[in-house]
Fold:
Amino acid sequence: MASLALDLLPEHYVELSEQELDARIACAKAALGSRLVILGHHYQRDEVVRFADYRGDSLKLSQLAASRREAEFIVFCGVHFMAESADILSADHQVVILPDLNAGCSMADMASLEQVEVCWEELASCTDARIVPLTYINSTAAIKAFVGRNGGAVCTSSNARKVMEWALARGDKGLFLPDEHLGRNTAYRMGISLEEMVVWDPQEERGGLREEEIRRARIFLWKGHCSVHQRFLPEHVARVRAKYPGIRIIVHPECKWEVCQLADEVGSTEYILKRVTEAPPGSQWAVGTEIHMIRRLAQEHADRLVVTLDDCVCLCSTMYRISPQHLCWTLESLVAGQVVNRVNVAPETKRWARVALDRMLEIT
Structure:
């Protein structure tokens, strides 16, 4: 388990004005110099990500942090599993900090180690087939370690197909954690039919499946989802096409299968960023992902239309917990010689999680 000793934001930080916060963050960052690296996920709010040394998705940021060996402190403006991944990949002398430990991930929380171990045992009792476990990077360190111990690998939304192909070449069936939509969309694009996939519901006895379903399935999809991407629906696609004839729709593979089937393109956060950034002026894009990233793309590329697929704001509420106040407090504490809200993955968990991550890097 990662450290969960939650330090609470001192009340006086809440009273600071935006100008005071900006000035104090900049001052503390300058004082720490090369001892510090700040990471900002694409879904982070503007007033925080502007101070990031690097902006990207979770794995890219963790790898960048690991390459900055001179940095003693890694401040990850993202969510808990991201900070865990940074700690897994970082050197022993580096300290990883999440400005607010309440910034979790609802998807990652949908698969606990205890639930997955029960699933693994029950699947083994129903079939002699070789099952290879795979976990999305959006999972806890404990789940990554479970996968590493049991011969599986981690994947991202951009390399999920390669990792799933690797798994099915090594075994008869795959168990995909914890996002059923990414698993389904990936397997379908590989030519695996929907009938060959079943959903394991950890709240139901034997996952809600009959033994014959378990024996017949090629892919077991964990019943989990991203609260942001699951909000997008087929009717949103129809509505935006009617409003903007000829618009190109691009969505994240964490969206539902039905939405991905209707979209023009499906790709990871980095893929979406690249496609819109490199698109010609005057092009039109409806994007199915988190709203902060969409708004930032629209602001940075005002010569093309970039709108959200759904007019209702699709905000990552847990990512939003990382505030300028928390960032300011974190940095000023470091200047004062105090570490707050450190994320520290236990050595044995870190070792096996690193095995699963290294397998992914070898595959891709």
Q: What stands out?
A: The first helix runs from residue 11 to 14. The radius of gyration is 21 Å.
